[in-house]
Design a protein that fits this description.
Two copies of one chain form a homodimer. Chain A is an alpha/beta fold. Chain A is built from eleven helices and 14 strands. In chain A, α8 runs antiparallel to α9.
């Protein structure tokens, strides 16, 4: 098993009520890859500029993350700058410098083409489809998107979704994509567009999964210190798909365990800036928090 | 086992995106009592005016709800009028006519004084304490409150909380009461005020319980049609405490099952205006939805 991930590799400048981090490693493919690599080898496709440093590359190199698909282009690396509100529940984008990411055309190296699992990070749905055209019958295609594509490229997005098995979006995106406020109705409408499985991420309120077997609700892990929420959604996706691929299964039981594993990884991600916490995380810590999730949610029959 | 509940019995006029109900049965003690009465006999203490009709009384009379403590006073019954936003996530109070409720002084009938469980609905914390002074060593005292008392009568409220075992409030109230944004920190601060167990209600996002055994997270049941959220919190409290009292236990396992039972009852409450759905609910439907909650949340070990 291996996972092909296509998405952004970026520098983030993040300000939270607890501090500021300047030009630290970020981007959806970065968070995804590190989280997934705890479970399954990852094939990374992305683009960085000449300014992308060796220290950043080192974050990937010590792991089961293949970097042949990480293109280096003349110019600067994608840079996102954001500031969180005092309660961390909303954020303001201060600037988005796409830089080399503006010209990103995913080129899938030959030995990535047989990846068993594919994660289409949040990029133009047309590019997402071009990725699918370069791979050979993956077992599972998972996909992220955002409001920008839902409002700006809906028809392209629908064509992509028709080829997606698992869609991971947040609750606002689910409402926008479906035109339904109620999440159960939204899920039914979205699943008709293609994805058999829909995962709705609700941040501190956890995750809802809608699949052929019905619905599954998982809480977020109640943390005393949430330091920086940046990347939590991509980390969730990485933990989810990384674990799922490692099971060699995509039945309901595996999907549910994968949702909890995604939530587990995300709960670590937010404990520090950038990928700092993920990079010093151990498998033993992961398994222990997974067990705590069971304790957090368990109740007996009547 | 029996439960003493003290709170409001009211007429509600409610407007939702789906319709309007005029002067229908409402009030915290009404929702609480009907929900709790599925599990444990209820002793109701409240006040209504001369305008309170036989049809409304009938809602209680067919159940294990003792009405000796429902005082009838000259004047009109408490009337609340509210309007929900299109998404049901916020509501505007259009008018609050306290009427006879303004002069409510809870008088506990002699045969209520040995109730094993007490629920102090959302009234002046001074009155809540007067209730406690009229009862004989209940096994469990549960309590609700609101922003009005937290900001207006904090010292009185703290004196009451020192005598409370289980506090049930929403997330905004927990933040206000503790001065902490983070719910884990808020819970720790609030439990120091007295309640061994804190239940934080998050509406469509479910419930968090903090007890001596740690934390427990329960989702709300994902409903396709939420018709009217009025009374959901009080119905939760009724299902919770009614079930808990029926177990004769207040250990962690019973508390967790009680949280799910509260969530189960609340999920029915919101399916119709007023108490309409609760009044035609059967125990078989309740048990079936409890089972669905297990299916909704269950996942396997790694």
């Amino acid at each position: 098993m291996s996972i092909l991930v296509v998405g952004s590799v970026a520098y983030d400048t993040v300000e939270t009520p607890f501090g500021k981090a300047e030009r630290v490693l970020g981007g959806s493919a970065s968070f995804f890859s590190v989280a997934a690599s705890f479970f399954t080898p990852v094939n990374l496709v992305g683009v960085v500029g000449r300014d992308f440093g060796e220290a950043q590359l080192a974050a990937f190199k010590d792991r089961a993350i293949d970097l042949e698909g990480l293109e280096r282009m003349a110019g600067d690396t994608f840079h996102w700058q954001g500031k969180y509100s005092y309660d961390l529940n909303s954020r303001e984008t201060i600037c988005t410098e796409l830089n080399v990411f503006e010209f990103f055309k995913p080129k899938i190296p030959a030995r990535y083409r047989r990846s068993s699992h594919v994660f289409l990070g949040n990029i133009d749905p047309l590019l997402q489809r071009e990725v699918l055209e370069q791979v050979e019958q993956p077992q599972v295609v998972a996909c992220d998107t955002m409001n920008f594509w839902i409002s700006g490229k809906l028809e392209e997005l629908k064509k992509t979704l028709a080829r997606v098995d698992i869609l991971l979006i947040n609750d606002a995106e689910a409402r926008q994509l479906s035109g339904e406020w109620n999440v159960v109705k939204a899920a039914r409408a979205i699943r008709k567009l293609g994805p058999r499985t829909l995962i709705i991420k609700k941040g501190e309120h956890g995750v809802l999964m809608f699949s052929e077997q019905g619905s599954f609700a998982a809480p977020a892990y109640p943390l005393e210190e949430v330091f920086d929420p940046t990347g939590a959604g991509d980390t969730f996706a990485g933990g989810f798909l990384g674990y799922l691929a490692s099971t060699g299964d995509h039945g309901e039981s595996a999907l549910r365990r994968a949702v909890i594993m995604g939530s587990t990884l995300a709960s670590f991600c937010v404990e520090a800036f950038s990928l700092d916490r993920l990079l010093r995380l151990t498998r033993a810590e992961i398994d222990e928090r997974y067990r705590l999730f069971r304790r957090l949610t368990h109740f007996e029959e009547l």
